[in-house]
Amino acid sequence: MTNCEQATMAAGIAQDDPGVSVASGRNYLYAIVATEAALAYPSLGVEGSDVYTIADGAIAAVVSRLTRAKIRPERANLKAHQAVLNRLIADTTPLPMAFGTIANSPQAIHKILTRNRRAFAEQLARVADKVEMGLRVTWDVPNIFEYLVNTHAELRLARDRLMGARHEFTQEEKIELGRMFDRLLNDDREAHVAKVERILSPLCAEFKANPCRNENEAINLACLVKRDAQETFSASVFAAAKLFDNNFSFDYSGPWAPHNFVDLDLEQ
């Protein structure tokens, strides 16, 4: 089990387990933070509840009491979950938990904090004084296949050779051409990611290239950025964009909790 967002079954923690009594002291978990001072955010949490910390030494879980037996991914709940993470990122760098992570009792929270103290400490040190920024770059073209045909002679020649005087491809020819398209598309993506990372690397401790969501997406990059370098990061994104022509569109977002840079295997 990796990523703090996925580690939700350890030491009495479960996601939306309707079999646990509300009277057991159920707590909703938002994040793990490094702090010796108690944090309190009145009425900010799910169900409009007060958000506070349950600490074990210098490491604490950020929680709120839960009255319902199940939390659904409704808009209001998702908004409250993200609001807490946004508030935390203004004060510290949290290890975010997945939406719907629930502890059966405060004792269960203490257990997971104690058992995973070293892992939490290492990950908190990894992301300390940093935030996550997202960068997406898309091909702003009407037809990505035609764009690659026009920019890759290899693909253009293959298409022309297969088409010849005909107007329709056989199924085998479509598969062959599709494989070439996919290979060239991924080669271009890797080259574009490398070009952008060279510009942004002085500001970023780590990068994570995430899968692109559609064919027109060229880059889906998570960047772990020094907290005091956010304005410089924005300027560097514009500098990187100048290396690309008008067929590309740049969009960045953040700051976010470092969802993509938390890598934990929690002891159960």
Describe this structure in words.
The chain is an alpha+beta fold. The protein has 2 domains: 13-128, no CATH class; 131-261, no CATH class. It is built from 7 helices and 11 strands. The chain has helices at 75-91, 106-115, 117-127, 144-151, 153-163, 171-200, 230-241; strands at residues 13-15, 27-34, 40-41, 51-56, 59-65, 95-96, 101-103, 130-139, 204-209, 217-226, 248-256. Strands 1, 2, 3, 4, 5, 6 and 7 form a 7-stranded antiparallel beta sheet that branches. Helix 5 packs antiparallel against helix 6. The longest helix is centred in the C-terminal third of the chain and has 30 residues, at 171-200. 29% of the residues are buried. Residues 5-12 and 14-24 have low confidence and may be disordered.
| Count of domains | 2
User: Given the structure, what is the number of helices?
Assistant: 7
Mean pLDDT: 87
> Which percent range fits the helix content?
25-40%
Most strands sheet = 7 strands, antiparallel
Please provide the count of β strands: 11
Tell me the strand percentage band: 15-25%
Instruction: Detail the poorly predicted runs.
Output: 5-12, 14-24
- Measured between the Cα atoms of the first and last residue, the distance is 10 Å
Structural class: alpha+beta
Task: Assign an overall shape.
Answer: elongated
| Helix and strand sequence | EEEEEHEEHHEHHHEEHE
Radius of gyration: 23 Å
Write the layout of secondary structure elements.
Elements: E1 13-15, E2 27-34, E3 40-41, E4 51-56, E5 59-65, H1 75-91, E6 95-96, E7 101-103, H2 106-115, H3 117-127, E8 130-139, H4 144-151, H5 153-163, H6 171-200, E9 204-209, E10 217-226, H7 230-241, E11 248-256
Antiparallel strand pairs: 1-7, 2-5, 2-6, 2-7, 3-4, 4-5, 8-10, 8-11, 9-10
